[in-house]
Design brief:
Layout (H helix, E strand, L loop, with lengths): L2 H27 L3 H29 L5 E10 L3 H14 L3 E12 L2 E12 L6 H6 L3 E11 L1 H27 L3 H33 E9 L15 H46 L24
Length: 306
């Protein structure tokens, strides 16, 4: 018996025991629908805890491992659009599907276009996918990331099982309800459990789809337009020197691009400034005002009768 099976069996046993005890208390003490719903929630929590313990065991022993794979491939081909069509044919042959596709036609002799695709392929085909893509074009870069979702999958399975039993129990309480209050409470609890069950099932289906079909982003360029590969950490002095020189060249190239963008504006500004300077120099100067002689007070003459 696998760990997953043991987890589900333990979950069923725990919930069945709690349900039986709750049913006995309900029949003996007249438990209301609200009290039964609260007791049922405690049972669901206990079942979830039991599933979590099983998940740890599965992760430790390596049983029933479920892994999500995502990859990114950079390719070069003389005709990227034609290569993209071959990738679509390859994905169909692998029983996969294309989730997104973008193609750009070339705009001249030195620009033959590019293509980008997001494809989903069966996880079992991921091991040979680089070789399959290599038959279409040159694979310049291929990166794969993995995520172990075994615990998440088993947790969802345990919760779905417990919630299904909870829905059955709420349905039985609704059928046996005798008062309007009990009917309303049972209907509310049942609706809540059904919504939770649908949410868990949808989440589990999405997770199963991610495990079954791996996502691969494929970018296709011409050999002349292929982007530079990701730079790894330099391992030796020469690698560091090469990396530094590449960074220096890239910086100089960027500075030259900025200068090329600003140069027309700088020339225009220089011409305008020169014109203003010439105009100011050629403008006739205003005539200077004639200096006025300082006024001196009159010299007093001899007094009369002196």
């Amino acid at each position: 018996m696998t760990t997953r099976t043991r987890t589900l069996v333990a979950t069923l046993a725990v919930l069945a025991a709690l349900t039986g005890c709750s049913a006995d208390r309900s029949s003996d003490s007249g438990m209301t629908a609200a009290e039964a719903a609260a007791d049922d929630a405690a049972a669901l929590s206990a079942a979830g805890d039991g599933g979590g313990r099983g998940q740890d065991t599965a992760a430790d022993t390596g049983e029933d491992q479920q892994v999500v794979q995502t990859a990114r491939a950079t390719m070069t081909a003389p005709d990227p659009v034609a290569a993209a069509r071959e990738v679509v044919t390859l994905v169909a042959r692998l029983d996969g599907r294309v989730d997104a596709r973008y193609e750009r036609s070339g705009r001249g002799e030195h620009d033959t276009g590019s293509a980008t695709l997001t494809v989903r392929v069966p996880s079992s085909a991921m091991a040979s996918l680089p070789e399959d893509l290599g038959e279409i074009g040159e694979v310049e870069e291929y990166l794969v990331e993995t995520e172990n979702v075994t615990n998440a999958a088993q947790d969802l399975d345990a919760r779905i099982t417990a919630t299904e039993l909870s829905v059955e129990r709420m349905s039985a309480l609704l059928a046996s309800a005798s008062t309007n209050r009990d009917i309303i409470e049972a209907e509310g609890a049942l609706t809540e459990r059904q919504a939770e069950l649908e949410r868990l099932r949808s989440e589990r289906a999405r997770l199963a789809d991610r495990v079954a079909l791996s996502t691969v982003d494929v970018e296709i360029y011409t050999p002349e337009q292929a982007p530079e590969a990701l730079v790894e950490e330099p391992a030796t002095f020469l690698d560091g020197l090469e990396t530094g020189w590449g960074a220096f060249v890239a910086t100089v190239r960027g500075v030259l691009v900025v200068i090329g963008v600003l140069l027309p504006w700088l020339v225009l500004g220089a011409l305008v400034g020169a014109g203003v300077l010439v105009w100011r120099r050629r403008r006739p100067a205003a005539p200077a005002a004639a200096p006025t002689a300082p006024t001196t007070p009159p010299t007093p003459g001899p007094a009369a009768g002196a």
